[in-house]
Amino acid sequence: MPGNEQRRVKLSHRARTRPAAGIRTLFPKEKVPGMISLLAGKPNEKSFPFKALTIDTQGADGEDVKLKVDGEELAEALNYGLTPGITGLVQWLMEFQARAHNRPIGPDWRLNLGAGSQDLIIKTFEAMMDRGDVILAEDPVYAGVLPALESQGCRVVPVPTNRDGIIVSQLQHILENWESAPMTKDLPRPKCLYTSPTGGNPSGTTQTEAVKEGVLREAIKHDFTILEDDPYYYLEYPTAGAPASSAVDRPRPRSYWSMDYEWGNGHVVRFESFSKLIGAGLRVGFAMGPAYILDAVDAHTANTNLQPSGLSQVVIYSLLRNWGSEGFYKHVDRTAAMYREKAVRFEECARRILCKPGLARFETPTAGMFLWLELNLPESKADTMAFISEKAVPAGVLAVPGFVFLPLPQRTKYVRVSFSKLADEDFEEACMRLKRAVEACWEEVGESVPEVGV
Description:
2 domains, single chain, Aspartate Aminotransferase, domain 2, 8-stranded mixed β-sheet, alpha/beta, Aspartate Aminotransferase, domain 1, transferase, 13 helices
């Protein structure tokens, strides 16, 4: 494995030349036994009006549990803290991730916390890429990353996908023909590939292990870093009719980050989030990867927002300590089962009301909370941004126009619909309103709806 200085060359110019945050680099020294710290301008905890935090929560088996945070733990959470996160929570997550992904704790990786996983992803983009650098991205791709890449002046090269995820043969073709293909011949070689492999947003599909193996082989061969954004990892739906197993033992997808330990050891940064599992407003996510990359991310944080919220961290840490690993798995499996039930019911309505009359089609989601609908619109109306504003909104229904998920700007017939917060009694009415909006497009052009495959 290359040494740290050799690997730091892969960082962006800004990351390599960013001055250290002088005070924060010394924060860990305050933990040295016997140290008298005259270092930081931390406020005295006695000035804080909060004496204790009591939270009514759900226990590992769904029972009511009351948690209390007070004393030194609360004082630490309310004050300036370490940039990578509260030490106890970081250690808990490292031990959990080592078991969950079969990757022993060692010098080849570390973990840090951020203000949600998107905070860490955007800072990783900035740490890895300069203006004009290239990133590969699955197509369609999570819409939240595209504005950041554009504002950083990065070039995005799309990689086609299907129900199994990234099409490896297409990725190989792009890389093997880089210097001759019109789209890439004037571009530098890619530094990263961004993907959301489980219950992809917006597609709802999950990459197979064979796909991940193929993509990782290309990353090693062509020396780019896979940015594995996996907020729906624990929301993969349990298989109906599968043999009963404990929450801990239930098979889960093998991650790129797990494979990287065996194959590449340094070609993957993995991002996870508590937003879909515990509370989106808490704004806490975490990343695992090579220390030289996460050090650069922490340096960015130390010079901007300083740290993730200490109060949010201590709430999550208290909950995880109460649950333990088994309790966490039980909770996420209950959550995944809830979303599966909603997905099954919403899909039934969508297939009956939209697909059967030939108004839409989609792939059955395997995780998460979305359907990626291809609407059967007239070619003159094949712009779902206009469709949403001119037809769907007047019909009383909202969805996300598909163009925001496309790495390259273009018209599209796709929309993303979310069923996560939709009340069961509204499933049918939501589909009926979409149906009326699509039919209105065909009435406007004076044609009947042509038949399409479901």
